[in-house]
Amino acid sequence: MKSPPDGPSAHEGPARSGVSRRTFFKLLGTSAVTTATLGASNIAKGLAEANAERVHGPGAVPVTLKVNGQPMTLQLEPRTTLLEALRTHAGLTGAKESCDRATCGACTVLLNGDPVYACSLLAIEAQGAEIETIEGLAATGQLTELQQAFVTHDGLQCGYCSPGMVMTLTALLRKNPHPTEADIRRAVAGNLCRCGSYPRIFAATLAASGQQPTAKLNVIPPHEHALA
């Protein structure tokens, strides 16, 4: 009988690499953790670089706004609202500060044609947008049809809500030149008139759109309420 050749027997198969299954999975797990850590590190680095370009303040920074067609650069703290920027820094006091909680609409301005509460929008967020205030409507000294209708139909009493009302309804008439009374009511749902002049505001808006106000909106003829 011949002696077996040196080395492993034929039935033992090929030589092993010397790495156990446990070691293999341990190495695999370590590799995955390392890869994930590096990936997270790269993501964090990317976010930090991106945020470095967007984070401003806490001190005043230059903020460029386009108001009534004119660009202006103001030095503002990033926390400054658009309302404060307009009133305190730009000298445009038409938009009124009242509730300062986005509930009354006295501060309404148009942002890219849509009414917004200026008290609840940061000025820095309005960069690049078209901002329109009540001052911009009659910049040439000529009242718009809506403004004139407010005068004709006594659409105001104390007048504090009027700039916001006019801006909201200006946006409505630009998008819907012939609104119904229901359309008008929906449009000014976010504008509060504490004097209760809503019927005259509705009548003025209908008149500005070339429509005849309904009888119920003209309980007292324009300009005669002082004598009633």
From TrEMBL:
Record has Metal-binding as a keyword: yes
Tagged with keyword Iron-sulfur: yes
Domain 2Fe-2S ferredoxin-type, first and last residues per copy: 61-137
Gene3D superfamilies according to UniProt: 3.10.20.30, [2Fe-2S]-binding domain
Gene Ontology molecular function: 2 iron, 2 sulfur cluster binding; metal ion binding; oxidoreductase activity
CDD domains from the UniProt entry: fer2
PROSITE patterns, per database record: 2FE2S_FER_1, 2FE2S_FER_2, TAT
Domain of life: Bacteria
Keywords from the UniProt entry: 2Fe-2S, Iron, Iron-sulfur, Metal-binding, Oxidoreductase
Pfam families listed in its UniProt record: Fer2, Fer2_2
Protein name, per record: (2Fe-2S)-binding domain protein
